[in-house]
Amino acid sequence: MKFPSSTIEKVVEQLSRFPGVGKKSALRMTMFLLNDDEEDVKRMADSIVELKTKTTFCETCGNVSDAPQCSVCTSVNRNRNLICVVRDFQDIISLENTGQYSGVYHVLGGLISPMDGVGPDDLTISALLKRVKEQEVDEVVLALSANMEGDTTSFYLARKLEALNVRVSAIARGIAVGGELSYADEITLGRSIQHRTPYKTSFDR
Amino acid sequence: MKFPSSTIEKVVEQLSRFPGVGKKSALRMTMFLLNDDEEDVKRMADSIVELKTKTTFCETCGNVSDAPQCSVCTSVNRNRNLICVVRDFQDIISLENTGQYSGVYHVLGGLISPMDGVGPDDLTISALLKRVKEQEVDEVVLALSANMEGDTTSFYLARKLEALNVRVSAIARGIAVGGELSYADEITLGRSIQHRTPYKTSFDR
Q1: Do A52 and B63 touch (CB under 8 A)?
Q2: Which CATH superfamily is domain A6-54 in?
Q3: How far apart are CA B34 and CA B89, in angstroms?
Q4: Which chain A positions have a beta carbon within 8 Å of B18's beta carbon?
């Protein structure tokens, strides 16, 4: 693609570094910036730089944070005896937005994947085991993706955690709420009937 | 959506201002920046700011440019007797990438649209007519989108230009009706400028 201005070419090149953004999308984004207010563009650029200079990772759980301890770990309303293990901080945002979880988190930083050369030592597993050993933890919830890497990691963690006499659970797998039964894949449908739950007619849950 | 860090919230808010970028995409882009090298992030932010401080618009044709005259208008290889009328500079990039056009351009800055309150006086039409009057122009090619606004604008321009005794043509309708110029593939767009046809203001075609 040829550009009438090297400045524009540079911006398109920079914006197309984003995942899922091609040259055409980057050009559309550049057009938007060209028509945008100079102050607003400067604000966007500043916020991007601040992302690298102002954010850090929570010393306890690995969640992204503005302070050495994240907002979940410092909250007085969270149950510290319940730890949910996730792959990265994006999963924490998803779980927090459900409003259904009151415990704390532990970010693994990845999943065990021998194909990609990621072993247990590359993740924050020893830090998790240390937390479980040193604090009074009742239950660890494994909230990892239902694929090969997620299942491998869950299995590995469950074995390690059981040795520490802590209850280990995993988030339920099944048909999505509102999902059509006939569109579900066989493995998901199979798991959802294996792990069926008692049906409740009252709403006292 | 709740965020674990106000810095992240600010970046997501800023990035979701881009057209076609929602909160989830913005979060994915933010994740990418968080994992990116600090130097690279700074380079991206700087390029965005430079876009507003370093670019200007060509005094002759309205194309985006690093100098008072754009690279097309200052090129010795371009035919100044042939002017292609486009909506915005993004269309110039698309046409330049076909490699099929050797004339110069004129950016209208929009299309006539009574619904949006855009009339002929809001566009650079008088500047175009001045160029045609003052220079030796053989032909004006109308390269506007094949939709209501584009057709209205083409019709208006053709009437005005015919009064100046200049040949008026339009890019071939190889482009799907209702299609945006910037989304067309290069071959279709290249052919459509090669096979431009005389523009008719009467309906005896």
Answers
A1: no
A2: RecR Domain 1 (1.10.8.420)
A3: 33
A4: 29, 32
